[in-house]
Description:
Distance between the termini: 46 Å
Structural class: mainly alpha
Amino acid sequence: xxxxGYGMANLEYDIPITPGSVFYIGSTSKQFVTMCIALLARxxxxxxxxxxxxxxxxxxxYGTPITVRNLIHHTSGLRDYLELVGxxxxxxxxxMDEMIGIYHQQDSLKLIARQKELNFEPGERFLxxxxxxxxxxxxxxxxxxxxxREFAHENIFEPLGMKNSHFHDNxxxxxxxxxxxxxxxxxxKFRLFLSTFDCVGSxxxxxxxxxxxxxxxxxxxxxxxxKEVIDLMHSRxxxxx
Length: 241
């Protein structure tokens, strides 16, 4: 019915934002990871109640199993790897954005696996943790034999015609029609957000508003996944109590 871009996609070349501009959408990427997991569950490749150590055996045994379902609903008790990196780097909350990109996928996985304790017993509480979705991306890779980028492309983006969408697992790769991010730097001034962030699952998706329209439409017309998968994606988590 209506579409229009606002603002600037690139200040250096005076390129305006259009409906076709490609944005990094941060943690909004997580819904696409959930769809990938739901597709694998539908096909019998995984069960949501599987112990994650079945797929990622290098994770410690915490006494109580962490399930795939715990990861999906942020009830795992796992410490957030981005917060851990901030602690290691000695960054305060105001500077946390500056450290995004210090760690890459396998480094982050090793950091998560080195944690000797959980914040709480799995299922006892809800606590948002980026570690959950980085692990889900690893589970997708190990069960399907394809990276999250490959699996999402073949099973979601290509079937839906989302031509401007991909999980960006190589920060050196150029992105066509990218809208760059900026920070305020005083009156009328900005500084460029330069990311070397290779981690996908917790984030990592580049997409456009036109592609997100195609994604949204699938929740009503079931082109990918079918009603079974869409209903599973909308199912609510439950705590132990």
